[in-house]
Structure formats: C-alpha cells, structure tokens
Amino acid sequence: MTPQKIDCAKARQIDLVDYLQSLHIHPAKIKGNAYWYHSPLRHERTPSFKVDRKLNLWYDHGMGKGGNLVDFGVLFFNCSVTDFLGRVNQSVVPFPFHQPDVSGTDNNNATSKIRLIEVKHITDRWLQAYLEKRAITSEIANTYCKEIHFEVNQKRHTCIGFKNNAGGYELRNAYYKGTIAPKDYTFIENGHRTIAVFEGFMDFLSFIAEREKLLATPTNYLILNSLAFFEKARMLMENHSNIFLFLDNDEAGKNITAKATASTGKYIDKSGVYSQCKDVNDWLVNQRLWRMRQPFIRVRF
C-alpha cells in the first residue's frame, strides 16, 4: 500500500525534537519541556533556539522568529513550503508525530494523554520483524527490553520498550520513536570497574550481539537515551577506571567524544571500530549483509 503523503497540516504535527535529531541537531540542554539548541539557522556560542516540546513550537531568540516545523523547514532549507513538503515525503524513514507528553509528564496524572496499558515479553510479529531488520535477535531483545502497549489520544500503539533509571521507557518500532516519561539514562551494573557508554539502546543491543569484536574487557553499561544526559551521567562514568565511548559518528557524537577524551585519559574513543558507519547498529547491519554476500563454497571429498 502506498504511504499517504504528508501535507502541510500533517507536517506541522511531526515532532520537532525528533525531526531536528534526524538532521543531527541535538539539544545543548533540556529543562522540562524546553529543549535549547545552538541555533541551526545561524552561528552562535550560547544556545538561544528553544523548542517547547509540549506545544511542538520553536523560537529563535537571536532572530526574534519562531513557529512550527514547516516554518522552520522553509528557513533552514531556504526553500518554498512545497519544496519542503517534498523533502519530507521523500524521506526514507517516517517521522514520528508529536506526542504531547514524551518529556517530563507524570504517567499517573489523570490529565496525561499517554497511558501505559501492558508490559510483556516481546511476541508481536511486527516488532520481531523490526528487530530482525536491525539485526537484533529476539533472545537479546527479550533480555533487555519489553513489548509495550500504550494509548495516546485513545489510539493504541505497540513498541519495543527499554526501561530507564527513572522508571520511564524509550519506545521504538518501525514508525515511531518516543518516550514514556520520565526520560533518563539507563545504567546496568555488572560489578566491574570499567563502563561502556552508548547513545541509544539499539546500539547497546548491537554491542551485545557482537561483543567479542567490539570490546574484550568486561564492563558495566550506560545507555544515555539522549546525548543531553552526558553531563548528568559524568560523575557516574568517572567513578570507573576506564570509560569506553561508543557514540554516533555524527557531529554531535564526535564533539562530545573529543571533549571527553581531552578532559581525562579515562575516556577511550571506540568509534574507530565502526568508523565507516553512522553508529554501532549500522555497523552490525552491514556486518550481517557482508556475511550474507559471501559466496558459498562447496567442499568435495
């Protein structure tokens, strides 16, 4: 079935924070529903570009301009509304639509628009197909994740859920990326003096799948769930003797890795292992494709 085209009204409903992330634009700080960025529309040293995630609107204090996602896209790409909608519709990955309480909302509040219905073992065949596409086995996924059923605006959804330290869940399926609040990092204590750090849980699951190729040292694990939590987790990380960084090979990931490794010798950049890929999961998927393409050699006796 041909996917329905996104018009102007639907484009305005796309989650701004997730859309900016798709452009490799990450927040410098988060305070409640306020996401602050170094402006993607101009050069600046102090972040003054604000996204109100509850309202799904942005405002650039340096420019004195703001608006919705379409307004941003037209300015960012210096194009017409029609051209911007064309870019959105040509995207390979569907953008998640705005969910009002993905950050900082109490799920037990009666006014909350997102409602957790069920947490269970992963059995949904669409989720299993999604994991297969990402080269993650069901065994690994079920060790660290759950199948989450939740309701938003009276519509039910099913996602893979990865629990964070605050009791919230990071949510993923083939068409959706979000959070059941509260949002936080995930620390997995294994009793070791070293720690491996990942940006998202798909990279962590990918690491588990090919651990022997990526790191021989037994470690604890820290999944940031957002680069914005790097500073918050800094004390936890630096309580370890060695900190192995497996961050994304994009501008934001490289910048944080460079600053961390320059600050102390405890931080060790491991992104060289997957230097030709955007992240650990991309590397894992490419490893699988490479193995599938190897010729089958028949041995005769």
Could you characterize the architecture of this molecule?
This protein is α+β, with helices and mostly antiparallel strands and 301 residues long. The protein has three domains: 8-90, DNA Primase, Chain A (Alpha-Beta Complex), CATH 3.90.580.10; 114-180; 186-289, Dna Topoisomerase Vi A Subunit, Chain: A, domain 2, CATH 3.40.1360. Helix content is 30%, strand content 23%. It contains eleven helices and 15 strands. The protein has helices at residues 8-11, 16-22, 69-77, 81-90, 125-133, 138-144, 201-209, 211-214, 234-238, 251-263, 280-293, and strands spanning 29-31, 34-37, 49-52, 57-60, 65-67, 114-120, 146-152, 155-163, 169-172, 177-180, 186-188, 194-198, 220-223, 242-246, 267-269. Strands 1-2-3-4-5 form a five-stranded antiparallel sheet, with helices on one face. The chain has a five-stranded antiparallel sheet with strand order 6-7-8-9-10. It starts with 7 loop residues before the first helix and ends in an 8-residue tail after the last helix.
